[in-house]
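User: Here's a structure from my thesis project, written as structure tokens. My advisor, Dr. K., wants to see whether a designed sequence matches the one we expressed. Can you design one independently, without my sequence as a hint?
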């Protein structure tokens, strides 16, 4: 048993050293090159590698994850991507941006409007932008559609986020302490049943965004905000009720725009 384990360990170490050396070789190859060229060549090479893995009956799911990390490391070696998204911080759009670019070593910047996201990418002040395109309950985002129709930017990628709303408060606040519920009007509407059944004595007021609402709630006793887990984490809030949306099939499709 001992000899068998030692042989296995030594063989695995040899293979892993070979993998590390190949990673070093890949990094050395792309140093100093244009990130767009690296991005395109790396993605094309990875697609071929995943196809080979499929032919060899190697699990495609884990192969895809592995090569996505390698691709992200390659891009970070060249230079960090500049990603802009519709803010503020901890918005669902940032959640989508993190889902897409979290392994790329990117620098993320929130912007105040969808129009500003488009303008920033068009002016080459960012490499990519992330904006919402459509919601399963609310329909298409008209401003995004209009800007796409009148821009030279193209859709470079997309992802879908399930919109899960939570009740977030200043740590230590209980249901009985809540006198005011705040959030973006869409979030308030999407949680109407919960508010009417569990918080019927509280006032309800809109705020410009779910993130703004969470930040305000965490700073004030007796105030509860409806927002995301990311917002609760970023602003130090406590989630006292999870998944309070009326409909579980609430999804938003986000797109990546680039030149």
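Assistant: Designed independently from the structure alone:
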């Amino acid at each position: 048993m001992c000899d068998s384990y030692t042989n296995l360990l030594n063989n695995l170490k040899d293979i892993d050293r070979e993998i590390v050396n190949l990673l070093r070789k890949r990094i050395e190859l792309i140093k100093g090159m244009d990130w767009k060229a690296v991005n395109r060549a790396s993605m094309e090479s990875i697609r071929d590698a995943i196809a080979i893995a499929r032919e060899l009956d190697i699990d495609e799911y884990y192969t895809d994850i592995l090569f996505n990390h390698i691709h992200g490391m390659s891009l970070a070696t060249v230079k960090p991507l500049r990603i802009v998204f519709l803010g503020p911080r901890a918005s669902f759009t940032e959640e989508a941006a993190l889902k897409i670019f979290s392994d790329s070593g990117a620098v993320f910047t929130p912007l105040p409007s969808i129009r500003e996201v488009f303008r920033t990418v068009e002016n080459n002040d960012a490499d990519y932008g992330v904006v919402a395109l459509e919601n399963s309950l609310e329909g298409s985002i008209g401003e995004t559609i209009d800007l796409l129709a009148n821009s030279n930017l193209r859709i470079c990628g997309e992802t879908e986020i399930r919109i899960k709303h939570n009740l977030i408060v200043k740590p230590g606040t209980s249901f009985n302490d809540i006198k005011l519920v705040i959030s973006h009007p869409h979030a308030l509407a999407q949680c109407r049943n919960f508010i009417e059944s569990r918080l019927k004595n509280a006032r309800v007021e809109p705020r410009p965004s779910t993130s703004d609402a969470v930040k305000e709630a965490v700073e004030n006793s007796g105030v509860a905000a409806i927002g995301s887990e990311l917002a609760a984490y970023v602003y130090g809030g406590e989630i006292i009720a999870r998944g309070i949306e009326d409909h579980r099939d609430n999804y938003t499709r986000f797109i990546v725009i680039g030149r």
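When you compare it with your expressed construct, this may help: The two ends are 58 Å apart (CA to CA).
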